[in-house]
Amino acid sequence: MKRSSSSGEQSRGPGQSKLSQFFSKRQKESIEDPSVELSHGSGTCLPQESKGSGTRSGSKAETNDEAASTSRSKSIQPNNLDLVFDKSNVDDQQKLFLLKNKWDIPSSFAFPMTDIRGTKMRFNQSRLEQYQWLRYSESENGVFCLCCVLFNSSEHAFVKNSINDWANLGTLIKRHLDQPGHSRCLEMSENFMSIAEGQKDDVMSVLSSAFQDKITRNRSILHSILKTIYLCGKQNIPLRGHTEEKSNFIALINYRAETDQILATHLQNSPPNARYLSPTMQNELIDICGRQLQQVIVSECNSANCFSVIADETTDVSTTEQISLCVRYVGVDSDEEMCVKESFLGFAEASSTTGEELATTIMTKLREYGIVTQAMRGQG
Fold first, then answer.
1. How far is CA 28 from CA 35, 39, 254, 346, in A?
2. What spatial distance separates the first Cα and last Cα of the chain, rounded to whole Å?
3. Contact at 8 Å (CB) between 343 and 294?
4. Residue ranges per domain, the chain?
5. pTM, whole model, 2 decimals?
């Protein structure tokens, strides 16, 4: 009587025995195959079949091929920088990884032979050391230009199509080096690595810094112009002259530019319509200064417990009735001492000189300025 263990082998049937031998043989080939590579972050082996291996039949073979293609497109293997992937989904970290790392070719790996016009040839590994941007694709048995692939060059050779004409590879590489798209992508890759490694500021930082420098420069120019206008107003010096070029304002600006290099550069290099020195610009700056001073006076007047209004009516050369408005209140001077202040607010145009019309115009104008009229205790 035969033992049960040996009879078990025969009870499976000839078909099942052959199937078991097939899987045992496949497992042994996968372990001994030098093209097997480790998956990212794990110790499992992922065998890859070469293009010259035997074909499979049936829908299972097609499913396995699609799964292998999908896994290749979704991840970049650490030991095989295969460029057959969806380039549109490569993020900056993957780009940096590809640029800094090359495929660590196993010593047992042999580049496949290619029939080129009747001559068997294979890729020379020394090309990868000679050209740092060159990358070999195992799945396509061809080479790509990594910089042009990652930074979207419009070239076809070395970018959209792999090159495996080993006989003319040197000529094709020299031709690719002369392409303007390659030089642009190579520069982009170098800048990308410098920025990613912190050796150079990114574009947004550079643009932001340049923009801030421009703002600081323009403010310095505007400050010099405003200080000149303020000096003329404080000393009762008219800004205008017989001609614009010989006016007091232009003379003082040129004098200030002798010790202000930023202002001097502005006057020399800026076009005439962008110097901020025209009479229209002078009047606009005077108006802005007037509104700022007016806001300070209104704030001080409202901070006081009470105030009085001082008004005077006169007719100008155009026979227009104008009222000058001033407020009198108790405030604090520059020495933090209490004092009585009389500050001019502005002019108001009166349509009539009757008492009722003048009173209505004064109250309306005070409210427009923002004065709290309930605190008014007198008029003069």
1. 14, 19, 90, 100
2. 138
3. no
4. 1-32, 87-196, 203-277, 297-379
5. 0.45
